Amino acid sequence: MIDHDHTIRAFDVDLHQIASMIEEMGRLADGLIGDAAEALEQRDTALAQRVIAADDRIDALKRDIEQKAIATIARRQPMAVDLREIVGALRISNELERVGDLAKGVAKRVLQMTDEPAINNALLQLGHMVQIVRFQLESVLESYTRHDVEAAMRVWHKDEEVDALNTSLFRELLTYMMENPRNIAFCTHLIFCAKNIERIGDHATNIAETVCYIVEGRTIVEERPKADITSGSQLPQLATGDDAIVQGQSH
Questions:
Q1: Among 19, 48, 145, 246, which residue has the fewest nearby CB atoms (within 10 Å)?
Q2: Burial (0-12, 13-18, 19+ Cβ within 10 Å), 23
């Protein structure tokens, strides 16, 4: 005879373990963003190297979550909301793994720009973007823990602010490059760093969508607000051949 109470308790334990691993991934990813930003601001190559190395821990946690989720599905055969909990956790772990990759991409840029003259105002603006994105990530992970759809949707709508900041910084960096060719190398690196930070904001909004899916079983069908012009043709023309670097740097 099947002990349903025992089965439910065992499933709850599995979900708690998966959620704990998601929480750890989130803490690690947030720490990597902060460390990568600090390494960029201080031109700290040693810290940048630590960020690059630490990303392996996030990758390992993603694999652990996948293994645990698959085992839980096989043993418990969950349905409806229980299955959404596991599928959602898998989605979120994938988003956090990408966040780690993007932070690592910023750290790799630091290693390439140690001798370039800095533009402090641009670094300050990027630092402001980092603060907002980290708050977004923290907020959306809390919304996941609390199953708070309203909080998740606030993160989803705030993504437009990050896009706008990225666009503003992009235009300012173009101006610096036109004013003085010696700024080109630094500004090009910073454009790609800013794009990585903006993409981290996108992953936070993806997590917000997953929270809605877990709690309500629905997919957000409205188009996400966007205010980013830097994904178009301007960037490849600005730094021919560097696209391959930014696409491949995080792997």
A1: 145
A2: middle
**Which residues of the chain have a pLDDT value below 50?**
1-2, 232-251
User: What is the C-alpha to C-alpha distance for residues 211 and 195, in angstroms, rounded to an integer?
Assistant: 25
CA-to-CA distance for 107 and 73, rounded, in angstroms?
37
| Dist. CA 197–CA 132, nearest whole Å | 10
Integer Cα distance of 162 and 133 in angstroms: 7
Cβ proximity of 156 and 205 under 8 Å: yes
Domain with 236, as residue range(s), is: 4-248
How far CA 90 is from CA of 15, 42, 75, 182, in Å, comes to 12, 35, 17, 45
Distance CA 230, CA 60 (A): 32
Alpha-carbon distance values, 42 to 22, 29, 48, 100, 210 (Å): 30, 20, 10, 20, 35
> Do the Cβ atoms of 43 and 193 come closer than 8 Å?
no
Structure tokens at 146: 């609390």
Q: How far apart, in whole angstroms, are the C-alpha atoms of residue 224 and residue 221?
A: 9
Residue 8: CATH number of its domain = 1.20.58.220
Q: How far is CA 71 from the centre of its chain?
A: 27
Q: Which residues 6+ apart lie within 8 Å of 243 measured at CB? A: 235, 236
pLDDT at 219: 82
Q: How many residues does the chain have?
A: 251
Residue pointed to by tokens 């994105």:
133
Q: What is the pLDDT of residue 228?
A: 58
Q: How many domains does the chain have?
A: 1
| Residue 247, pLDDT score | 38
CB atoms within 10 A of CB 148: 16
